[in-house]
Amino acid sequence: MAKVLPAKLYNHYYIDRKFERLNLFRxxxxxxGGKRVLYPGSFVHITPSFVYPEVVYVDNDPEAKQFFDKPAxxxxxxxxxxxxxxxxxxxxxxxxxxxxxxxxxxFDLLISLYAGFVSLHCxxxxxxxxxxxxxxxxxDATMASLDEDLQFIEYGNQTEGKYTLSTLYMDTYFVTKxxxxxxxxWVMRHMRGFKxxxxxxxxxxxxxx
Length: 209
Ligand SMILES: C[S@@+](CC[C@H](N)C(=O)[O-])C[C@H]1O[C@@H](n2cnc3c(N)ncnc32)[C@H](O)[C@@H]1O
Prior knowledge:
Layout: H1 9-15, H2 22-32, E1 36-40, H3 48-51, E2 54-58, H4 62-69, H5 76-80, E3 88-92, E4 107-112, H6 118-122, E5 126-134, H7 140-145, E6 150-159, E7 162-166, H8 184-190, E8 202-207
Parallel strand pairs: 1-2, 1-4, 2-3, 4-5
Antiparallel strand pairs: 5-8, 6-7, 6-8
């Protein structure tokens, strides 16, 4: 497979594949506000920086490090950002499970998309009252649903790149079939979401304690 140059990575993975998810971040910012965002397992998905002025990206893939090492690779953020101040973009080339050099309870939004159990390892960095955006591709939404510190507040579904957020019939989500006991150990072992009766593309939780 041809190697993609760091400067072209965002185009290749996100623009060409129509997978930026900008519409989702815009809705989240409009609805919940917030300025400081933590994105463990981000790869080069720098879209949140179009909407939020301060984003900390974390990934242990060397390709992501190469991309973030050179600000010229993402100077397009300045053209596409929706806020007046300069973008603050920081990157940690670490395994998020071993700790991130950022203060606890200092972020307004924690993003967990296709990158393992971010909620489990990185909830500590989220402010009480802050929001977790999570999908269930690797089981992290299921994991969050079992966490007493996190309250399920909304879900979203996507059609042709446009997300619709909803709070309708919330009590029908994360419901297992009768006689099924779901545990953290099950989620850890399977590393995927549980097949609930009803599922969504993304979920929002609020850290309540
Ligand atoms: C499938 S990509 C998803 C990228 C991005 N979240 C998105 O939605 O487009 C998963 C990324 O998570 C990173 N990742 C997985 N586990 C990680 C860990 N424990 N620490 C740091 N990065 C991790 C991988 O290196 C990879 O770049």
